[in-house]
Amino acid sequence: MTPLLSACAGGTLLGFEIGDIGGLWTASAYEFVSNTTSSDRVDIIDRDGAFFTLSVDDGVQPPVVGSTLDDGTGSRTNRSGTVDIKDGLITLGDETFAVIHAGNRMTLTNEDGLFDFGSGTVSVTVVITLDRL
């Protein structure tokens, strides 16, 4: 993954601190985009009625995160992880996401995903757009 974010002085990332992303977030989009053909994309919230929540507990160090994904097709996955504020990363289970934060919106991006658009599993970028509750 090529992070678009760089570390800033004082343990902050692009001017925000961990407290800025603390709380409960819900996804408005959970998209899989082919790494070879960007027109191949699926938003499972839109297509399948999936639901994704992310909680960030900034009261502990390192901050702890937890997530729940109901994929809309009968599968539910709970994962936990941590926030690396200096590198701008959230780790959920064995997946690492780059974080872009602006007010009450946050986007998580992982370029190392896999997805089957119907003709076999391919390499994808996972893009999750979240809004703070």
Stretches where pLDDT is under 50 for at least 5 consecutive residues are 1-15
Strand order, main sheet: write it out: 1-3-4-5-6-7-8-9
User: How many beta strands in the DSSP annotation?
Assistant: 9
Helix and strand content put the structural class at: mainly beta
| Helix amount | under 10%
Helix and strand run = EEHEEEEEEE
Chain-averaged pLDDT: 87
Can you walk through the features of this model?
This protein has 133 residues and is mainly β. It contains 1 helix and 9 strands; from the N terminus they run E-E-H-E-E-E-E-E-E-E. It has an 8-stranded antiparallel beta barrel.
Keyword list:
disordered N terminus; mainly beta; about 130 residues; 9 strands; 8-stranded antiparallel β-barrel
Q: What layout of secondary structure does this protein have?
A:
Elements (H helix, E strand, L loop, with lengths): L22 E12 L6 E3 H5 L2 E7 L6 E7 L5 E9 L4 E4 L2 E8 L2 E12 L4 E12 L1
In short:
By secondary structure, this protein is mainly beta. It has one helix spanning 44-48; strands at residues 23-34, 41-43, 51-57, 64-70, 76-84, 89-92, 95-102, 105-116, 121-132.
